[in-house]
Amino acid sequence: KDTDKERGTSEWRINGQIKTQKQVRELLKSMHIQVGNLCQMLPQDRVGDFSKKDEAGLLEETARSVYGEFYDNSIKELLKFHDEHHVKQKLLNKKQSQLENE
Q: In its keyword annotation, does this UniProt entry include Coiled coil (predicted)?
């Protein structure tokens, strides 16, 4: 990526040929490169972010690196189940309290 700060424009290049940002994203996707995944690609401006992570953050980034979308989808599903469980637990506690008060 070449950035012209004075004009506020950027050009993307692949093997010296100018490409659109969409073409660059498609190439990255086809090669399974996840730029936002700190374990897969660590550009200098993100190295600091990675080194500041605690053990849980490092584990999360490592799992994301290994499992990709499967990890993200699994986490979303687990969070959904957790929320459903929390709602049902509250309802159960309320019902138990009502039974005890009768």
A: yes
CA distances, 14 to each of 5, 18, 25, 97 (Å): 21, 7, 11, 66
The whole-angstrom separation of Cα 43 and Cα 68 is: 19
Both structure tokens of 11: 């050009």
Q: What is the pTM of this model?
A: 0.42
What is the tens place of the pLDDT at every residue in 34-91?
Answer: 766 655 555 666 667 777 888 888 888 878 877 878 888 898 899 999 999 999 999 9
The Cα 89–Cα 75 span in angstroms is: 21
Q: Under a CB-based contact definition with an 8 Å cutoff, are residues 61 and 36 in contact?
A: no
> In the chain, which residue ranges form alpha helices assigned H by DSSP?
21-30, 44-51, 55-67, 69-101
Rounded Cα distance, 80 and 86, in Å: 10
